[in-house]
Amino acid sequence: MVTVYGMKSSGNCYKVQLLLEQLQRPYRWVEIDSARGETRTPQFLAKNANGKVPLLELDDGRHLCESNAILHFLAEGTNYLPADAWLRAQALQWMFFEQYSHEPYIAVARFICRWLPAEHARRADLPRLLERGAQALAVMEKHLAGREFFVGDGYTIADIALFAYTHCAADGGFDLTVYPAICAWLARVRAQPRFERMHA
Which residue among 9, 85, 179, 180 has the highest number of C-beta atoms inside a 10 angstrom radius? Predict the structure, then answer.
């Protein structure tokens, strides 16, 4: 059985949980509160020197970090990762997009709005985050026009990766109602077998 060190309110950790639930793969969840420094203890840093969650621990003691790398590993040999090389590369393309053009703006805006006090200096970053996050959502909206999922004809880890922070983007001040294709896609993801909502 694999062990996941994660934080329930984190979209990056939720990705891993969602895939494991949909794979019906047994796992053990260890809640780690990074806000309280639990990812900076010597014990945790020995498992992941980068001091972040999620972290996957295999039963043989190996560790894997970075949420999308974990998705790729867990989905190997399943329908959630395309066997075709071109489709697999497209899935990775969207997962890289999620980490570099989407998550740094949408997830960070969510964090500032939900967990930082109103007078916090980081709230000055919100206009830039909202602008860049809207650019990412516009790219997604254009791609989803006339298609059900991000890659090929089916639901893959690319959808899981992008769903995690998109579905709660309103927490960061984003108005998803102006993106009808994204809203329809979110509904399709929620309708997938064994869907598990994020427990924030």
Answer: 179
Q: Please give the Cα distance from 167 to 176 (Å, whole number).
A: 9
pLDDT tens sequence across 99-125: 999 999 999 999 999 999 999 999 999
The per-residue pLDDT for range 79-102, each reduced to its tens digit, is 999 999 999 999 999 999 999 999
DSSP conformation class of 200: -
Q: Which residues of 39-56 are buried (b: 16+ CB within 10 A; e: fewer)?
A: beeeebeebbeebbbbbb
Its pTM stands at: 0.97
Domains of the chain are 2-75 (3.40.30.10), 85-190 (1.20.1050.10)
Question: How far is the C-alpha of 41 from the C-alpha of 55, rounded, in Å?
Answer: 14
